[in-house]
Amino acid sequence: MASTMQTLPAAEQGVMENAPADMALLLSRAFELGDSLKHSAYAAEYIYWKDQVHQDAEVQSLTKQFAKAKEKFAECERFGRFHPDYNAALDHVYAVEGRLDQIESVRKYKAAEASLDELLNDISRTLAYAVSHTIKVPDNDPNPKASGCGNGGSCSCSSGGGCG
Fold it and tell me: Which of 57, 100, 136, 146 could form a disulfide with 151 if both were Cys (CB 3.0 to 4.6 A apart)?
């Protein structure tokens, strides 16, 4: 891949009003970025630990137990927390999940997945903010740190209905 510091020709000259994007160049750079990500240490670690998890018989057994426990809990949950087995079913889900989390390959897999996810989110933010800081960027964080329009915080928009 070319240097990550290279910019698109339009960016070097400034944005021209109503100028179409060079889609071929954008797609080419996107594929280069994708190839770089596929060959990165983050992806290699993720794939390695994913394979380790899939080859571990104990993990496979606990995964099946976990799926059954979640199914049982979902059955209880349909009737609400007043179902006689609700708490026991929930405790069983947590117990099996805890046993899974004690296995090294599962812990390393989850850590590698989180690292790769963070890298992808950073790239998404970088690309979006290169266009505009008001673009919403998808994130897997259940507790977003951002504020402003669409994020539950205050913004500088007029009450007329939108940010521009």
Answer: 146
